[in-house]
Design brief:
This protein is an alpha/beta fold. The protein is built from 19 helices and 24 strands. The chain binds 2-deoxy-2-amino glucitol-6-phosphate. The site of 2-deoxy-2-amino glucitol-6-phosphate has 15 residues, from helix 9. 2-deoxy-2-amino glucitol-6-phosphate (AGP) binds next to helix 9.
């Protein structure tokens, strides 16, 4: 996923574009670049590495004054993260500059055609092929808009393209297919960006572009067509984020801010969704009650942390609705020839709404006539747009690459959907649903309580900074929590970490346990007697082999005390809701461990906030 900004207006294009790129740097930070149109020429500057590398060069350079420009932060797909591969890319004679997010799947064939026609391509990227094609259209007499329309018809794959031409100082032209692009409408200025964070300090009026559309912007207007040049419409909306929401609000890292925002994120996700008397109302649910009653199987598709949220949700969905529920890695789903038909509900969970693995799995499900329900945190993103219904998590913008508040709100959203299905299908009474909604509404306070007593977990992370590996054990809904705790430690502290179903330990993984190995154990509430007893036995098993046991257990659970080297107390909550409180110490542990190791918390190495390539 890359960050893209385009601008035309009365301000300094360089200032506006660089400011926008700073807000989008979380989308990718392998390289960055800008292109400005000034005095009939193109000024471009680009550098590998973070945006600060580009800023440094630009501060020494004398960029010409310009009111029209584009910019890009890159997450490498084709070609290493080098200056040469950084965007913008130019046409053969430097008349066109182009930035791109996505992947051109037929770029090799197009490259071959260009080289056969004498073009010399300087980079390894798929993007440069497009800049050459655009410029060839201009040289053949087309204007930039027509050139973009013609070139887009030749491209396969996913792309957001934004281009300027040296001899066209009035307009920026862009196009999108399977990749995000929004227009910002200012007073006598117009913006283009991958997401609204890039321009909300200038305007909150935005237009979301649809699939296979080309947009031409000038200072005062915008015009949308399809790839054939026919007039088309975008979807106008108002951005309700505060600028502060895109800043760190006093925290050192976005991740710390987002961990602290989790109580509010849960509350906002519940807001307005339960009417009096416990009857749920999910106004974004555009599937009819009859369609919901006909559902005979649910398949959750997602990646990474979102996949773990699906694993948690499975227990509640099956228990409350009695509908069989499978949870599948989106990247595996369509290759296993899944059994899907019109009575299957596929739930696609995606914070960004742009994860290509999940999007392609969703499309496969729709081809098989499944009903698709999206759970996403990003309004107007591709996955919700291509679903039959959507339930937005209202977690607010999540900037840190390591997902935290999105995870908790995805679990809450899944529980709301499960309760809604139970309500529509009559597998639960209204008062039972109301009681669970009441319990969910206690969760913000429960998470606040965990955060208020989290300091010992931070101290433990600093003490264990040199541990060679960390294991995580859980049972039932605690098992996905163990997986999520391990993923957080991998992606933030770059440590060997693994989550296991505790009952599986004796079938092999217990061989990993030796003196001093830290083992986190998520203990189910005592109310689930059998589960609880077995987990206490598992703690003894690993401790007998030298493990350092870090036990997460509810207040008042004294059965674990003799076997806990470290004891992290959790508020007493219902078993199915325990992931909402048990995950938080693991998030904080990983974040503090990464801090102790001096890592970049918000932008861990090799990662991007949303992976828009398969
Ligand atoms: C989470 O910490 C990771 N950054 C990653 O696993 C992420 O959850 C995954 O890529 C899915 O992203 P999505 O929710 O935007 O689809």
């Amino acid at each position: 996923m890359c960050g893209i900004v385009g601008y035309v207006g009365a301000q300094s294009a360089l200032d506006v574009v660089m400011g926008g790129l700073r807000r989008l740097e979380y989308r990718g930070y392998d390289s960055a670049g800008v292109a400005l149109v000034a005095d009939g020429a193109l000024f471009t500057e680009k550098r590998a590495g973070k945006l600060s590398n580009l800023s440094k060069v630009l501060s020494e350079d004398t960029a010409p004054p310009s009111t029209l420009g584009i910019g890009h932060t890159r997450w490498a797909t084709h070609g290493a993260a080098t200056d040469r591969n950084a965007h913008p890319h130019l046409g053969a004679r430097g008349r066109v500059a182009l930035v791109h997010n996505g992947i051109i799947e037929n770029f090799a064939q197009l490259r071959g055609q260009l080289e056969a026609a004498g073009h010399e391509l300087r980079s390894e990227t798929d993007t440069e092929v497009v800049s050459h094609l655009l410029e060839a259209e201009l040289d053949a007499g087309a204007d930039l808009t027509t050139a973009m329309q013609r070139v887009c018809k030749q491209l396969d794959g996913a792309f957001t393209l934004v281009a300027v031409a040296s001899d066209d100082p009035e307009r920026v032209v862009a196009a999108r297919r399977n990749s995000p692009l929004v227009i910002g409408l200012g007073a006598d200025e117009t913006f283009l960006a991958s997401d609204v964070a890039a321009f909300i300090e200038h305007t909150r009026d935005a237009v979301e572009l649809g699939q296979d559309q080309v947009v031409t912007i000038t200072r005062s207007e915008f015009d949308i067509t399809d790839f054939a040049g026919n007039p088309a419409e975008g979807k106008r909306f108002h951005v309700d984020w505060d600028i502060a929401a895109a800043e760190k609000a006093g925290y050192d890292y976005f991740m710390l801010k987002e961990i602290a925002e989790q109580p509010e994120a849960i509350a906002n996700t519940l807001l307005g969704r339960s009417a009096t008397g416990g009857r749920l109302q999910l106004d974004e649910m555009r599937l009819s009650d009859d369609e919901l009653r006909a559902v005979d199987k649910i398949i959750i598709i997602a990646c990474g942390t979102a996949f773990h949220a699906g694993l948690v949700a499975k227990y509640a969905i099956e228990h409350w609705t009695r509908i069989p529920c499978e949870v599948e890695l989106a990247s595996e789903f369509r290759y296993r020839d899944p059994v899907v038909d019109r009575d299957t509900m596929v739930i696609a969970i995606s914070q960004s709404g742009e994860t290509m693995d999940t999007l392609m799995a969703l499309r496969h499900a729709r081809d098989q006539r499944a009903k698709v329900l999206a759970i996403s945190n990003t309004n107007g993103s591709t996955i919700p747009r291509e679903s039959d219904a959507v339930l937005y998590t209202h977690a607010g913008i999540e900037i840190a690459v390591a997902s935290t508040k999105a995870f908790l709100t995805q679990i809450v959203a899944c529980h709301l959907i499960a309760l809604y299905l139970a309500q529509v299908r009559g597998t639960m009474f209204g008062d039972e649903i109301g009681a669970i909604v009441d319990e969910l509404e206690q969760m913000p306070a429960a998470v606040t309580k965990v955060l208020a007593t989290i300091e010992p977990v931070r101290a433990l992370a600093r003490e264990l900074r040199d541990a060679p590996a960390v294991l995580f054990l859980g049972r039932h809904v605690g098992y996905p929590v163990a997986l999520e705790g391990a993923l957080k430690l991998k992606e933030l502290a770059y440590m060997q970490a693994e989550g296991f179903a505790a009952g599986e330990l004796k079938h092999g993984p217990i061989a990993l346990v030796e003196q001093g190995v830290p083992v986190f154990v998520v203990v189910p509430p005592q109310g689930r007697g059998q589960l609880h007893e077995k987990m206490v036995s598992n703690i003894q098993e690993v401790r007998a082999r030298g493990a350092r046991t870090i036990v997460l257990a509810e207040e008042g659970d004294d059965a674990v005390t003799p076997y806990a080297d470290e004891l992290v107390r959790l508020p007493s909550v219902p078993t199915l809701l325990q992931p909402l409180v048990a995950t938080v110490p693991l998030q904080v542990f990983a974040c503090e461990m990464a801090t102790a190791k001096g890592h970049d918390i918000d932008q861990p190495r090799n990662l991007a906030k949303s992976v828009t390539v398969e």
